[in-house]
Specification:
Blueprint lengths: L2 H16 L14 H12 L4 H14 L2 H16 L3 H18 L2 H17 L5 H11 L3 H17 L3 H12 L9 H18 L3 H14 L11 H12 L3 H18 L2 H17 L3 H8 L13 H14 L3 H16 L5 H4 L1 H12 L3 H123 L5 H32 L7 E4 H10 L2 H7 L2 E6 L6 E4 L1 H17 L5 E10 L2 E8 L6 H7 L8 H7 L5 H11 L3 E7 L3 E9 L1 E2 L26 E5 L3 H10 L6 E5 L2 H9 L5 E5 L7 H14 L7 E5 L4 H10 L3 E4 L4 H19 L5
Parallel strand pairs: 2-4, 9-10, 9-11, 11-12, 12-13
Antiparallel strand pairs: 1-3, 3-8, 4-5, 5-7, 6-7
Helix pairs in contact: 1-20, 2-11, 2-12, 2-13, 3-4, 4-5, 4-6, 5-6, 6-7, 6-8, 7-8, 8-9, 8-10, 9-10, 9-20, 10-11, 11-12, 12-13, 12-14, 13-14, 14-15, 14-16, 15-16, 16-17, 16-19, 17-19, 19-20, 20-21, 20-28, 21-27, 22-24, 24-27, 29-30
């Protein structure tokens, strides 16, 4: 078999082995060498090497992993162009950035690039370190880079089959879906193309270079390089396709002139000489090399190819002395081992051409035969090495196949055992399903019991709320009334102790109820329109007397941009603010407490309560929001409290779609803040809260209802309201149950109804609904009804609203709370009667 035909067959065989998982790769276009060259010219024509360096400078400023990858791209392209000094500068920048970021991957990439520079400059020993990294490097990306460099070194040693196999193995290292997988694959295809080019497989090389240059290239990275055009033009000359080689050279020459890099000019001159030599045009060979002078100047690093070409051209044009000078220079360089083996073969070719030019045809013929024989031996050695690699791979695959067949026979013998195990597994699965069904029934029963327990707990809390708040109402109200009775200082002090203790007990009861409701998921947010600034100032105003008493400055700072109406749950916003302000005053003995509200964005507000109190450290912060815990036990002993307020506030803020957190410093104070979404309501006046006391202010005695109907089954509660309203210009009519209330209302003449929710004979909800029905049936004006109840749960408030109540006051009731509730109900009634004025 002739050597050229054998090489072609080897290319086909190796192609089948190196094209790894083609179906898993993106589909590549089928291109001719000229089509690929045109595509590369279009791509390279959109940028230049100045843009590449600007890209590198921008990469340095990124200071991240992508920046390192871009520096690698810049250094590698300059290295491929033979611009070794520039490549070394960019590779040093890559190393500096990688060390700064602590990136092992790119430190290794920079080391490998440095090895490649040493190798390209003639230090063949650098390949040994490439081989070590290709086999031992743990990072897949750096290992892939090392593998392709080592594969190229193997190809330089004519071990093309082994090099291609290494590239195939390296592809298996690339993790599918990784952000840099395509870049790594492109690098492998570049080296694969070089390997196929050395096997004279121009179609395979074109396809491989197409994957590298176009299909897998990152469009965001500038690519002014055009190595594939050079390689395909060179291969075309070797295959004798001179016309194609000329056209490819023209593309290369245009791109070289555009690039303006000295090293590319050298490669362009070499390609020019190769094409001219293939076209048997020695004068053109000399013209191509003339710019570099007798000693080749900047092109001396390619002297292994340029000197033989120039010597042959000189001999063919009769410049025998010049040809012999070139031959002498070639021999001198061989003695210092600066030529590889394939270049040494050209000595015989040069000698034959010189002898022929001198008219010594017989001697020239002998030299030419020696040259052709040596060339055939070299080609045979390449072919033999490739075949040995392929047959070795085939033997390995056959061994694997035998092992697979033996495994299959073993599997057949084990099928009976597998079927037995499968039967046992099925029976076990059925037993497990039966057991799971039993467990599911038990879980359903347990869930029903838990739900019943939760309902019982809610009912218990509601009843306890009623039973505790009813007597507590008497205590708070009587203490409130006594504090206004002109008592002696000592007596006033005792009354204040009673009032303060009752308020603390009521706060504790409310916290326990809120905690229970949060745990049970029974908290329902009620969105309404309210004035944000007034709400913040109102919450702070409730604590101003306490601050003044302690000598602590209490300031409110509301950003002007958030003044006005917003939509949200005003009750819960006020509750969280009250908890934070109360907490700040509790722990602040001197200094100030600042309540601030600022806009975070258009529909999000941050509230901050800052104090100059005892503060806390990082360890204490972790316990602050736990239920029944404070920063430490000494705080509970010193300041009191249950530790529920902050936990409740955090849960309420979370329900409102926000976050609550704090910062503190021991003995320097603390900042508690929360952010919640509050929708701006432009041009809408915020109404007073229709349910419960709020910001209604003091009620004008002249506008107070002249006649009020009170329905409450508890004598103490009736007495409380009677005492509270004793100084008001109103007549109070008290009844003991809902039926009496309906009968009294039927007779007419009442301006307002205060209705207890839980009463014998007829409860307050039924009585309220009956009164509304009576008003509708007799076409009466709607009379304001306020529910007085110890049940503070949201569903009870909603039940009162549905029944027809206009307001809701939770016991214990204070005079201020009662007057505010009356004012709010009257304001709501006035808005209904005069909607335009409202």
């Amino acid at each position: 078999m002739p050597i050229k035909a054998a090489a072609f067959a080897l290319a086909l065989v190796l192609s089948a082995f190196f094209v790894h998982d083609v179906s898993a790769q993106p589909a590549a276009q089928s291109r001719t060498p000229l089509q690929l060259a045109e595509a590369v010219e279009r791509r390279a024509g959109t940028t230049d090497f100045r843009a590449l360096e600007a890209f590198g400078r921008e990469a340095i400023r990124r200071n991240d992993r992508e920046g390192l990858q871009r520096l690698y791209h810049v250094a590698w392209i300059f290295l491929n162009q033979g611009e070794f000094d520039t490549a070394r500068i960019w590779n040093d920048r890559l190393m500096e950035g990688a060390r700064h970021q602590g990136s092992h991957r790119y430190i290794q990439i920079a080391r490998l690039n440095a090895l490649a520079l040493r190798y390209d400059e003639g230090e063949t020993a650098a390949a040994d370190e490439m081989r070590r990294l290709a086999s031992m490097e743990p990072d897949w990306f750096a290992r892939t880079h090392a593998t392709r460099l080592w594969a190229l070194a193997l190809m330089d040693r004519d071990q093309i089959g082994e090099g291609l196999k290494l590239l195939t193995d390296a592809d298996a290292l690339i993790p599918e879906g990784d952000a840099y997988a395509r870049i790594a694959q492109a690098g492998l295809w570049e080296m694969t193309g070089i390997g196929l080019m050395r096997l004279n497989d121009i179609d395979g090389a074109t396809a491989a270079f197409g994957r590298f240059e176009i299909d897998l290239a990152n469009p965001d990275y500038p690519r002014p390089d055009f190595d594939a055009v050079y390689n395909l033009a060179r291969l075309s000359t070797q295959l004798g396709d001179v016309e194609q080689a000329k056209r490819l050279y023209q593309v290369h020459h245009r791109l070289t002139l555009r690039a303006g890099l000295p090293s590319l000019g050298v490669y362009d001159a070499r390609l020019c000489a190769m094409v001219a030599q293939a076209a048997e045009a020695p004068q053109d060979v000399l013209r191509c090399l003339a710019p570099y002078g007798e000693n080749l100047g900047d092109a001396s690093f390619l002297s292994t190819q340029l000197l033989p070409a120039r010597a042959i051209a000189r001999a063919q044009t009769g410049q025998i002395e010049s040809a012999r000078r070139d031959l002498a220079q070639i021999r001198r360089r061989i003695t210092v081992d600066r030529y590889r083996e394939e270049a040494r073969l050209e000595v015989a070719h040069v000698e034959a051409e010189i002898l022929f030019a001198e008219g010594r045809a017989a001697e020239a013929y002998v030299k030419l035969r020696a040259y052709n024989s040596a060339e055939r031996v070299a080609e045979a050695r390449v072919f033999s090495g490739g075949i040995r690699q392929v047959t070795g791979d085939m033997q390995h695959k056959l061994t694997e196949r035998r092992a697979q067949l033996e495994t299959a026979r073993s599997n057949t013998r084990l099928q009976g055992l597998i079927l037995t195990i499968a039967a046992i597994f099925i029976l076990s699965a059925l037993a497990a399903l039966l057991w799971m069904g039993s467990q599911a029934r038990d879980l359903r029963i347990a869930r029903r019991r838990a739900e019943e327990a939760s309902r019982s707990k809610s009912e218990f809390l509601a009843n306890m709320s009623h039973e505790i708040r009813t007597p507590l109402n008497g205590v708070v109200a009587m203490a409130d009334a006594l504090s206004r009775a002109g008592l002696e200082p000592r007596e006033r002090e005792m009354v204040e102790v009673i009032r303060s203790s009752a308020v603390t007990l009521e706060r504790l009861l409310s916290d326990i109820l809120d905690t229970s409701k949060i745990e049970a998921g029974q908290i329902v947010l009620e969105r309404s329109v309210f004035d944000l600034g007034d709400t913040v100032r109102g919450a702070a105003a409730l604590y101003r007397p306490r601050a003044d008493e302690k000598g602590v400055a209490l300031r409110v700072e509301v950003e002007p941009t958030i003044e006005g109406a917003v939509e949200g749950d005003v009750v819960r916003v006020r509750q969280v603010l009250s908890n934070l302000i109360s907490n700040a005053l509790k722990f602040t003995e001197t200094g100030s407490v600042v309540v601030a509200a600022v806009a975070v964005d258009e529909d999000r507000v941050r509230f901050t309560v800052s104090d100059t109190g005892c503060g806390f450290d990082a360890g204490q912060k972790g316990r602050i929001f736990n239920r029944f815990q404070q920063a430490d036990g000494s705080i509970t002993r010193r300041f009191g409290g249950t530790g529920l307020g902050l936990a409740i506030s955090r849960d309420l803020v979370a329900l409102m779609g926000g976050v609550l957190d704090c910062d503190g410093r021991p003995d320097e104070g603390a900042d508690f803040w929360f952010e919640i979404p509050l929708t701006r309501v432009g041009g809408v006046q915020s109404p007073s809260a229709p349910f419960g006391p709020g910001d209604a202010g003091e009620t004008d005695a002249r506008a107070f209802p002249a006649r009020i109907l009170l329905a409450d089954d508890h004598p103490a509660n009736r007495k409380v309201v009677e005492i509270m309203l004793a100084d008001m210009p109103t007549e109070l009519v008290a009844v003991e149950d809902g039926r009496q209330a309906v009968e009294a209302f039927r007779k007419g003449g009442f301006d307002m109804v205060l209705m207890d929710m839980q009463m014998p004979v007829m409860d307050g909800l039924t009585a309220t609904a009956a009164i509304r029905a009576l008003e509708t049936g007799e076409n009466r004006v709607r009379t304001p009804i306020i529910m007085l109840t110890a049940n503070a749960l949201p569903d009870h408030v909603e039940a009162g609203r549905v029944a027809g109540a206009d307001g809701h006051l939770s016991k214990p009731i204070t005079l201020v709370g009662l007057l505010d509730g009356v004012a709010a109900a009257l304001a709501a009634a006035e808005r209904r009667e005069n909607p335009v004025a409202a």
